[in-house]
Specification:
two-stranded antiparallel sheet
Length: 1427
């Protein structure tokens, strides 16, 4: 009760205040009236309780609703139901009903049921009468939809449904509500009279709400315990409709006559019912679901037979009208079958309450039979009038049937009972899905794609259950194989890209449960693979070939390389087609070990074997089979090799070598997926790797083997790390540890060999160097890539090697490195020494990155590496490549052993001293980026609370600032990041201002480069941290920082300093507030930006001024800007822009006002004599008989009506014979309406009333002038005037008087008028004097001659002016006037075209176009031609 009083009732009463919706206002009013009634009753009973409870409001609402229903019955007026307060009363009942007690609800439930059923009946009757009126029958201008926006019949019916649903849910949720028999009967009556009565209503909103209410009702009952009354009643209702519809179809089938309108209506109702059943059938009882499924099967069969009969009639009939009717009926039948299929699918896929397997089997058998007959009829019938909708319905039929078949097969094969039915029917269903559902000649491409997806789902679900090799399973798989092989038929060729993935999936699924004794499965897989591989040879179009290759690749990925190779071998002897098991001998045309028709498989094996697969490879297969074939190919490359007593040619040897490398390329596919026999097979293969990787005939093997070794070491190490308790993983790690003792020395030696070969390739003298430069560069680049791959393999194997072996190997490496550093290298170009040191540094870098060295080894490496960081140009000892590699090792030390660097104070000081002092002038340009990275790693290891660490930063700041001026962009960005990293350290320590003071110290540098770099660093810091308003931020320092940096404006001769300062000013102006920036305007502008003229940075200064103008305005900035012309120009441009915006706004506003005036106003209502078509309820639009109300009713706009009216008048004007009448009508009726008239339009006088042209109000209303945007250029299509004066417009003054122009006031620039007048005079003279030549007086002749000379002089001046304004071409000063070439004239300083002056002013935004046009004489114009 309290909840109703506190929440529900205030909401009902307060809706009037919170909403403008008339329905809410009416609801609040009715609620208030009910509350007053309740209080009056209390006063009569002398009750002192002021609270109104839900029972009282509910009872009052029922009483009021009963009264309205009785009054409506007495008045016999169906329209009164819309004006009565029944709608808000129903809302009140719905809101108050949940708060009523159970006993009171039961006492009033019969009354509520009678009222709701009666309202439903009367409201539906009113709706039928309203529909008749709308159809034109008995239409007396009555509309039963309310005009006060309070809702109509649909809204009232929906509210009845909501109230009935609320009452029924109240009954269901009561614990003992179903114990009363009378209550059950009343519930059935309420359901039948409301929900079921509107279940098939023609109004979509009402019908959908009825479905939703019934669904919510049965869901509520299913959630309660031991209650099924509602569900049983709903199920009985559905079964009754199914039975009734089936009887109608059987009558139709037996009588074989055209269906009546009642049958068509029943089909529509059945489709609506099926939409409800698809979502609500699973909430019914299991027995009812079974009955519904049986009825659905029977209905589908009957509809399929009717459809087949219609198709047969269409094939025999020649009447087009009857055929079109049958097509529409057929489409309706197919849509019904699709809905029934969706219903059955929903039932079968439900896992909560499943139906019997026997019923599922009957459904599947019926589907197969129906789909067979349907597909036969679809392929046999060739309708000329088949519509696109029918084709879509058939495609939808195939999709629904496919989904239902897959669901049935999955259910039958996944159950623990008898699977015989599934094994018999599943292959047939798969054949129906793939062959009939994917035929592109009878279905759409969307249907093919959907059916292919369903086929894949069926293969995954069904084949996984057939795991044994018994006869039934093999027979079923063989039947599925027959269906799959049909996909390779040429009629499916256009859809191979969609269908062949089903083929590859079938091959993969068969292999999932294969065993060594599964001879039948192996035979099936071999047949499928051989068929698709042999098909590749017979294709000639690229699309089909690519599709077949993708299919074979998917088979390789699913089966694995070894399994695929066993079925499709690449050997020439085994892969001979049609060989019958006999080995094929090599002949002249096949001198390779790989079959010619199998070569296309090699790229597929290489690419798809690397893809992710569930099949783990075996190393033994690669060693025995793949390497065996590679050895055979390698044997053919020997000079002594021959076939058929004939020595191989160079081309054949090259092909054999390429095939040998292809076989080795398959190694990556084995080592990327964690082979299963690492412990057993990898030690043997490691010996082969040691020999092959050093084979000089195949340098490509270095990359292949190194990459594979890196992969296998990484996989084994990560697996052992994440699975420390896995015994197999630890055994694999131990195996690689043993192998590393043999492989690492080989890889170390290989790096040395490759580095030495680089030095030998780079050496040369004389002409040989010029001839072999390109070849040497390519060899060096290839060797560098190989060295990278080998060092990555060393890094990976170092992590799995034993620490003792690794330390001994490192000691050897360190000894050789120390020997190289102390060796005599007095020669300037000692390439051998540099290459040897480079290889040793590469190995050191690999070991360092592996993180396996102890601190003692790292310390020794650090000391041994320092000498190689020195490069002193011509007087230096080592090359730049050595220094770069040494910095790479140092960078790895700083990254992976940061604590080794920063943990020891002496070592930290040593490396900082080295970075700052020793390397400042010795660091090569190629190593500058690495040097900055070293500093970054060192700084990243600093602790902000460690004073020793923080004391290092001031020592390295200057060096980092200079790196901001480096030519390499990556180095500059690394320096910026390092500066920000140090800034973050100081910010963590709440001492950011101290860091700023350290940076500012760079402004005192002696070089302009240092000062410029300091300003750039400050700019970046302000950009990142300038908006921080905390006390420890840099924002308080910004004013003083601005004053300090602006001092650098005095360096007018240092362009880089000025540029950086202007950039800083631009950033700090954006970061500072106006209050903080205002005191420094004089320093910033007068003593800064405008102190010295800097034309190059004028655009940047202008950008800063614009930003300042936004903060302060022009008036405040003008005293500080010496260059007032720039400020005035900017002010004028801003004012011009504002004027344009205001003009556009005013123009838009005037257009809107003009439209409103043209649509009519108060004066039109007072002055007009026209009859209002709406009794004066609307304003006039300016045209007789067309108002806003009529426009809303007719659907026309005012513009459309005006165009029609103008057209009619123009057509009427054509019937007038008089030319003057034509001209007058053309000038008056020209245009498209009042808003776009081209000439004056004056309405005709009526009833003898004189039209006063001097009345300004009358003229303003009845005279329309030409649109300014038209300019008189466009002529009306209906204008037939030919006097040439139709375009002239009459002019009027402010008082409405007509203005007549004097011909003498015409301008002299109107050449066309002068020419016309002269022609008229000449023509009149000829008419008067005949053909005689007129004599002209001397005065007239002299006058004409003077006028002609003046015209010539003006034309010459204009030409000279255009020549002066014309852009001069480059080199124009050197052109010869007498010849076509260039000459050197006297006084010229430069040779012709030897010098092009570059002026910064020429490339500003203002003069850029002129400069480009000048260059057109030298460079061809880059303008694109317009199409």
């Amino acid at each position: 009760m309290d909840e109703f009083s506190l929440a529900v009732l205030p909401k009902l009463l307060g809706s009037r205040k919170k909403s403008r919706d008339p329905r809410d206002v009416r609801l609040a009013a009715v609620t208030s009236a009910l509350v007053e009634t309740v209080k009056e009753r209390r006063d009569e009973n002398s009750s002192k309780n002021n609270k109104v409870d839900a029972i009282e409001v509910y009872a009052a609402a029922l009483t009021a609703l009963e009264g309205t229903l009785r009054q409506q019955a007495e008045s016999m007026d169906s329209a009164s139901s819309l004006t009565s307060p029944q709608f808000p009363l129903l809302q009140i009942i719905e809101q108050t009903l949940p708060f009523v007690t159970s006993s009171f609800f039961k006492s009033q439930f019969k009354l509520l049921t009678r009222l709701l059923c009666g309202l439903t009946l009367t409201t539906k009757g009113a709706g039928m009468i309203s529909a008749e009126d709308k159809d034109g029958q008995n239409n007396n201008n009555k509309s039963y939809e309310t005009k006060d926006e309070l809702g109509g019949i649909n809204a009232k019916l929906r509210q009845i449904l909501k109230t009935a649903k609320t009452a029924l849910v109240f009954v269901v949720e009561e614990e003992d509500g179903m114990s009363d028999t009378d209550l059950e009967k009343t519930c059935m009556k309420l359901i039948d009279g409301t929900l079921f009565d509107l279940f098939n209503d023609k109004r979509p909103k009402v019908r959908k709400l009825a479905h939703s209410c019934v669904l919510e009702l049965i869901v509520s009952e299913s959630e309660s315990m031991n209650k099924n009354m509602m569900r049983s009643h709903v199920g009985a209702y559905i079964l009754a409709i199914f039975q009734h519809f089936k009887e109608k179809l059987e009558k139709k089938k037996s009588k074989k006559k055209k269906s009546s309108s009642s049958l068509e209506e029943s089909m529509v109702n059945m489709m609506h019912l099926l939409q409800f059943c698809e979502s609500g059938v699973n909430k019914l009882l299991i027995a009812q679901k079974t009955s519904i499924c049986e009825h659905a099967i029977q209905l589908s069969a009957i509809l399929a037979n009717l459809t087949f009969a219609m198709q047969s009639e269409d094939a025999e009939s020649d009447e087009e009208m009857e055929e079109n009717d049958n097509v529409k009926k057929e489409e309706t039948h197919i849509m019904l079958i699709n809905s029934l299929s969706s219903l059955l699918t929903s039932v079968i896929e439900n896992t909560e309450d499943q139906i019997s397997e026997e019923l599922v089997g009957r459904i599947l058998a019926s589907l197969i039979q129906m789909s067979t007959s349907f597909s036969v009829s679809s392929t046999s019938s060739n309708k000329k009038s088949a519509s696109t909708h029918l084709l879509g319905a058939k495609s939808d039929f195939q999709i629904r049937q496919a989904r239902l078949m897959v669901s049935c097969c999955t259910r039958l094969t996944s159950t623990s009972g008898n699977k015989t039915i599934g094994k018999k029917l599943a292959p047939v269903a798969l054949n129906m899905i793939l062959i009939h559902g994917c035929d592109p000649s009878i279905v759409t491409s969307e249907c093919v794609s959907s059916c292919a997806s369903e086929g894949q789902r069926m293969i995954r679900n069904v084949l996984s259950s057939w795991t044994t090799d018994d006869e039934d399973d093999m027979k079923a798989i063989k039947s599925c194989q027959n269906a799959i092989e049909k996909l390779l038929h040429h009629r499916f060729r256009s859809c191979w890209d969609i269908l062949l993935p089903v083929y590859s999936l079938f091959v993969t699924e068969i292999n999932q449960n294969i065993s060594d004794s599964s001879a039948t499965r192996k035979k099936m897989i071999s047949s499928l693979l051989t068929t698709v591989v042999d098909l590749h040879e017979n294709l000639n179009d690229e699309t089909s070939i690519k599709t077949i290759e993708n299919t074979v690749g998917s088979c390789i990925q699913g089966l694995g390389m070894e399994t695929f190779w066993s079925y499709i071998p690449l050997d020439q002897q085994k892969a001979s087609p049609g060989g019958g098991g006999k080995e094929k001998q090599y002949n002249v045309t096949s001198n390779t070990c790989i079959g010619q028709h199998r070569i296309w498989l090699i790229p597929l094996l290489i690419s798809y074997s690397k893809a992710t697969s569930s099949v783990r490879p075996r190393i033994s297969f690669f060693q025995d089979t793949v390497l065996g074939l590679a050895r055979k190919c390698d044997a053919l490359t020997d000079d002594r090799s021959s076939t058929n007593n004939r020595k191989l040619s160079e081309l054949e040897i090259s092909v054999a070598r390429s095939q040998c490398l292809d076989m080795w390329s398959l190694l990556a596919g084995f080592f990327e997926h964690h082979p299963i026999d690492i412990v057993e097979s990898f030690p043997k293969l490691a010996k082969t790797f040691s020999k092959a990787i050093t084979d000089k005939r195949y340098p490509e093997l270095v990359t292949i083997i190194s990459t594979s070794l890196n992969n296998i070491a990484t996989v084994v190490y990560d697996n052992a790390k994440h699975s420390p308790d896995d015994k197999r993983a630890q055994e694999e790690l131990a195996t690689l540890e043993k192998i590393s003792q043999k492989l690492l020395p080989v890889l170390f030696k290989l790096v040395d060999t490759l580095s030495t070969s680089n030095s030998s390739s780079n050496s040369g003298s004389g002409m040989d160097v010029d001839r072999k430069t390109t070849a040497s560069t390519s060899v060096i680049q290839e060797n560098a890539q190989r060295i990278h791959h080998v060092t990555m393999a060393i890094q990976s194997f170092s992590r799995v090697a034993s620490s003792d072996f690794l330390q001994s190997l490192f000691q050897t490496l360190l000894t050789r490195l120390l020997q190289a550093s102390t060796s005599d290298n007095s020669g300037k170009n000692n390439d051998d020494l540099n290459s040897r040191i480079s290889s040793l540094l590469n190995l050191s870098h690999a070991l360092t990155c592996s993180r396996t060295l102890d601190l003692k080894s790292i310390s020794l490496l650090y000391r041994a590496m320092k000498p190689f960081l020195m490069v002193l140009g011509d007087t230096g000892t080592y090359s730049s490549g050595v220094q770069k590699r040494a910095y790479k090792v140092l960078c790895a030390l700083c990254e992976h052993y940061t604590q080794f660097i920063v943990g020891d104070e002496s070592r930290l000081n040593d490396i900082v001293e080295w970075m700052i002092q020793n390397s400042q002038h010795t660091c090569h340009i190629a190593a500058r980026g690495l040097r900055i990275q070293c500093m970054s790693y060192v700084i990243s290891g600093f602790d902000s609370e460690n004073q020793k660490h923080m004391s290092v930063i001031p020592d390295i700041v200057s060096e980092i600032l200079l790196c901001l001026k480096d030519s390499n962009a990556k180095t500059r960005e690394s320096a910026y990041q390092l500066i920000l990293g140090m800034c973050q350290l100081y910010q963590d320590n709440n001492n950011l201002q101290e860091y700023i003071m350290i940076i500012i110290g760079g402004l005192g540098g002696q070089t302009s480069q240092m000062r410029s770099a300091t300003v750039m660093a400050l700019s970046r810091i302000v950009y990142e941290y300038g908006r921080d308003v905390s006390d420890n931020g840099i924002r308080p320092l910004l004013p003083s920082l601005l004053e300090t940096v602006c001092v650098l404006f005095n360096e007018k001769n240092s362009r880089e300093v000025i540029k950086s300062v202007i950039g800083f000013v631009r950033i700090i102006v954006a970061a500072m507030d106006a209050e903080d920036l205002e005191p420094h305007l004089s320093t910033l502008l007068k003593d800064g930006l405008f102190k010295h003229e800097q034309p190059r940075f004028r655009a940047k200064v202008k950008i800063i001024l614009k930003r300042l103008v936004k903060k302060f305005g022009y008036d405040k900035l003008e005293p500080f800007v010496p260059e007032t012309r720039l400020v005035n120009h900017m002010r004028k441009m801003d004012q011009r822009l504002k004027r344009r915006k205001e003009a556009m706004k005013d123009q838009q506003k005037n257009n809107e006002q003009a439209q409103q005036q043209q649509q009519g106003g108060f004066e039109d209502m007072m002055e007009s004599d026209e009859d209002d078509s709406d009794d004066g309820r609307t304003l006039m639009t300016g045209f007789t008989g067309f108002t806003r109300m009529t426009s809303a009713r007719s659907g026309k706009t005012m513009r459309t009506a005006a165009m029609e009216r103008s057209t009619m008048k123009s057509m009427a004007s054509k019937s007038v014979k008089s030319t003057s009448s034509k001209t007058l009508m053309g000038s008056m009726l020209d245009g498209e309406g009042s808003a776009t008239t081209r000439g004056p339009r004056i309405q005709n006088e009526k009833d003898g009333e004189v039209f006063d042209l001097l009345d300004s109000n009358t003229m303003a209303k009845h005279v329309h002038f030409q649109d300014q945007h038209n300019n008189g250029n466009d002529t009306d299509d209906f204008d037939d005037s030919d006097d040439g004066y139709g375009d002239e417009v009459m002019e009027f003054d402010d008082n409405g008087r007509l203005i007549v122009q004097d011909d003498s006031h015409r301008t002299h620039n109107d050449d066309s008028d002068d020419d016309d007048d002269e022609d008229d005079r000449m023509e009149n003279a000829q008419i008067k004097y005949g053909k005689k030549r007129l004599k002209i007086s001397k005065f007239e002749s002299a006058k004409a001659t003077k006028a002609k000379s003046q015209a010539d002089r003006s034309r010459q001046k204009q030409n000279n002016r255009s020549k002066a304004n014309k852009t001069k071409e480059l080199g124009a000063a050197y052109k010869s006037k007498k010849a076509g070439g260039d000459v050197k004239k006297k006084g010229q300083k430069f040779e012709p075209y030897a010098y092009v002056p570059l002026d910064g002013k020429s490339y500003s935004k203002k003069n850029r176009g002129k400069a480009v046009s000048q260059m057109e004489s030298v460079v061809r114009s880059g303008k694109r031609k317009r199409r």
